[in-house]
Every structure is written in structure tokens, then in C-alpha cells.
Amino acid sequence: MDHNEISMRVKRTTKRFATIRGEMHKVVIGQDRLIDRLLVAMVSGGHVLLEGVPGLAKTLIVKTLADCVGLDFQRISFTPDLLPADIVGTMIYHPGDGVFRPKQGPVFTNLLLADEINRAPAKVQSALLEAMQERQVTLGQEALPLPNPFMTLATQNPLEQEGTYPLPEAQTDRFMLKCLVHYPSRDEERMIMNRFARMTDVTVKPVLTPDDLQDMRTTLDRVYCDDKVAEYILDLVAATRRPSLFRVDADQLIACGASPRASLYLHQSARASAMLQGRGYVTPQDVKDFAHDVLRHRIILSYEADAENITTETLITQILDTVRVP
Q1: What is the pLDDT of residues 234-280, one digit of tens each?
Q2: Is the torsion defined by CA of 77, 83, 89, 93 positive or negative?
Q3: CATH code for position 293
Q4: For residue 38, what is the domain's CATH number?
Q5: Is the distance from CB of 172 to CB of 132 less than 8 angstroms?
Q6: Single pTM value for the model
Q7: Which domain holds residue 88?
Q8: Is the dihedral of CA 241, 33, 110, 287 positive or negative?
Q9: Contact between 114 and 128 (Cβ < 8 Å)
């Protein structure tokens, strides 16, 4: 595929991104940064963890995205009494022929919203592990493939700790991005207030087909990432494991650095970000733009960091400021 064809495909994909954004903004006010990250994860085939206080339209954004892309959508409200079978399904006995057959759970969909995922115990949260990584679910002795595409969007409330269960590290590492959902600006909140003052419902229509999404993913594979930028990605991830090698004063602050998934997802998200902006090549700024979202849930801080009130956000910023940019 020559340069001109790649440029044409990237421009076509950028227009599709703009169309989805415009359709979503019929319902969602603001949250441009979050919408872009959801689009990057969708075209990359990754999962997203959304963290924010109640009332910031996390569920509304996910539901609107599903409506705009014309994908099957299921929502699971995680509660302490939820069972793994409530998510993935179970084997049901049929007395007519004396055979157990699989009864598929709500995970068999294209876009799965795991609402308040930290409300359920660890064994329920872990029911998604195989689905998120392998794109399949094992029921009995049968491995059932999930629909393609499949994407998990999970939400959690960072404030309330009573009755919540922190996600296991193996679970959080499977999320491509962890996005922090912030309060709207004053002007955006005024627009929200005015819109909901009317009783009329605003609906969106599908503006993307599964074939369009597959075409976007094919285009993503053609986005160029120079070896120097790839080395920069590896340096950033390595700096979370052995900071002193990169002159980052944080050896005593990190208990465990980012896994190799961080390199894979940072590379993928940087390429998707370039395509989102109409470019067929990656710049170091694309990598920087997604470093916090990819790394913040993969770095485990030490007790010394907690004692000094140092957060992963501060640490990632320090790494970005220190590691040499190509």
C-alpha cells in the first residue's frame, strides 16, 4: 500500500471519527477528551476503565457510543450478591434429552458496560478475565467465542470505599486505558442544565457499521511508527521498572513497574491517536498524550510513596519530563 492510499484511508477514518463525535454530542455535553479515548480504544480493540464520581454521565457516554456505532450493548450492574454465572452464563440441564447445554450470559455482546465494577467481590470481577484477554468464555468443557468486536467498558467510583472491592492487579492490567472522568466546566454545566430542563428525549442514530469499524482497524495497522518513537515508548515503560537508569529519582517510590502490556497498548493508542488527528505517522506527542491513561493503573506505588503523598500521576509526569524525547 503506497503513501497516497494510506493518506486517503486515514482521512476517511478521521471523518468517521468526526461523525461519531458529532452524533454523540447530540446527547453528551463536553467530555471531548474522554470521547476521543473511547474511540481510540474502540478502534484498537482495547478495554477501558472509567473512574469518576457519580453523576458525570459515564454510563450515558457508553450507552451513546453503543447507539452511534450500531453495536449490540449489554449492561451489568455489579453488586455484592452478583455471581460469576450472572456474567458469563452457566450450564443448564435439559431433562428432555438429559444433556447440559450452555446458557450464555450478558458478556456475549459487542459492547459490555460493567457498571460499578468494584461493587462485586474479586471472584466476580475475575469472571471477565478470560473474556477480556482471550475473547472467549469457557462453560463446562466448551470454549465459546465472543462476538467480534468485543469491548468492555467498566466504571468505578473512587470516593466510596465501604462495600467496594479493589480490582485485582491481573484485572486492571487487562484494561488498555484507565480514564479519569472530571467535572464539566461552568459553561458545559449550564448547557447540561438547559438541555435537561426540557422533557423531550434526544436520540442518536447509528453512523458506523461493523464493516466500517473493521476498515478503520485495517487502516490502523498501516499507521507508521518510527523506530525512534518505538524506542521512546520502551524507555518510558522501562523507567517505571528501573527509574535510576533514566535518571528518575523514584527507585524507592515504585513497588512494581508496568507490565509489557503497557508497551503494547501505548504503541497502539499512539498510532490510533495519530489517525484520530488525520496523520498516518506517530509523533512523540501522541505517546505523551496517552502515557497517563496507559500507565496510571499499571504502576504500584511503595509505602514510601504513600507516606510522601506521591501519586502515580505525579510519578508519570516526572518520567515524561525526564526521559529523553527523540
Answers
A1: 999 999 999 888 888 888 888 888 999 999 999 999 999 999 998 98
A2: negative
A3: 1.10.8.80
A4: 3.40.50.300
A5: no
A6: 0.89
A7: 3-211
A8: negative
A9: yes
